[in-house]
Design brief:
This protein is an alpha/beta fold. It has 2 domains: 138 residues, TolB, N-terminal domain (Rossmann fold), CATH 3.40.50; 111 residues. The protein is built from 9 helices and 11 strands. Strands 1, 2, 3, 4, 5 and 6 form a 6-stranded mixed β-sheet that branches. Strands 7-8-9 form a 3-stranded antiparallel β-sheet.
């Protein structure tokens, strides 16, 4: 009787262990692409793994902490046994790594999931896509979906997806873009800067978009610096006057205050001009993306010349 009970307990414990989700550490992709694109690729991979069923994606902060404590960089984890070892330290069962390597006019993409206990590759897919196109994300999505096709689960009320930290699925990005000032919309939804950069990756449109965002940022610096300088100048001019019955006047302080106020007005005007001029490159980037063109139709340039501030419309 005791043997039957012990055997039953062992069987129940075994089934319980098998029923538990496998913990997966998803590393940032390695390769020559922008950090914003790497973040989007990682989030999309995490979303697909979570929704495939049977897996729990480890919290990103935990992964970064373990990597930092052990002086590892995900871009340098090229050896499967080394990846397996760092995965064990994170408490993961599996590690998912992605490499995006430039090869001439193409990107070579490799995705693989490694069992940390055996350092064996459990799943792997490779693909190529043309550099400068917008096919990178769709190709990665297709690869990962195919890798986990056999693990896809049917959602039921009693089987919700489980994660250590809730992972928000990346929205599907498709359709024409529209620009309102520096804001970019797609299908009526405002896109974040990372989403816009993900769509425009490896195209000239991205260069114009980044130029517009940078110009707006510089405009803010000029504007707020000018406002601060103007108020400091006003305070200096007020302080240079007399005090009640004893007349006092500091000419030097009044001169400095006047100069600061004038410079502040000029800086504020410059900031406003830069913010207005930042809309042109963003609009051009959207037009280039929608038309598939590699050249903007027109661009408003702003800058300083030996004769003062200049604005030029280039075709």
């Amino acid at each position: 009787m005791k043997k039957v009970i012990i055997t039953s307990v062992i069987a129940i414990l075994s089934l319980t262990a098998m029923a538990q989700d496998k913990k997966v550490a998803v590393f940032d992709p390695a390769g020559s692409v922008e950090s914003a694109i790497k973040e989007i690729v990682r989030e999309e991979i995490s979303s697909i793994i979570v929704n495939s069923g049977g897996y729990t994606v480890l919290e990103r902060q935990l992964i970064d902490k373990v990597l930092e404590e052990n002086k590892f960089q995900t871009g340098g984890l090229v050896d499967d046994s080394q990846i397996s070892e760092i995965g064990k330290r994170m408490g993961a069962n599996m590690v998912f790594v992605t490499n995006i390597t430039p090869m001439g006019n193409n990107f070579y993409i490799s995705c693989k999931m490694i069992d940390v206990m055996t350092a064996r590759i459990d799943k792997q897919k490779t693909a190529q896509t043309q550099r400068g196109s917008t096919d990178l994300m769709p190709v990665v999505q297709k690869m990962v979906n195919e890798m986990f096709a056999s693990d896809q689960k049917v959602s039921t009320p009693t089987q919700p997806a489980r994660t250590i930290v809730e992972t928000k699925p990346a929205p599907e990005l498709s359709g024409m873009l529209t620009a309102e000032g520096r804001k970019v919309y797609q299908n009526g939804r405002q896109l974040s800067r990372n989403e816009v950069r993900g769509l425009m990756v490896n195209t000239d449109a991205l260069r114009y978009y980044n130029k517009g965002i940078s110009r707006n940022r510089n405009g803010n610096i000029w504007l707020f610096s000018g406002i601060g300088s103007f108020f400091i100048g006003c305070i200096c001019m007020a302080s240079a006057g007399g005090y009640e019955e004893d007349y006092y006047y500091d000419e030097d302080l009044d001169t400095v205050g006047t100069a600061l106020a004038v410079l502040g007005v000029g800086a504020a005007i410059t900031g406003v001009s830069l913010k207005i001029a930042s809309r042109g490159p963003v609009r051009n980037s959207v037009n280039m993306y929608n038309s598939g063109s590699s050249r903007a139709e027109k661009e408003l340039k702003f800058g300083f010349t030996k004769n003062g501030i200049g604005v030029a419309l280039c075709f």
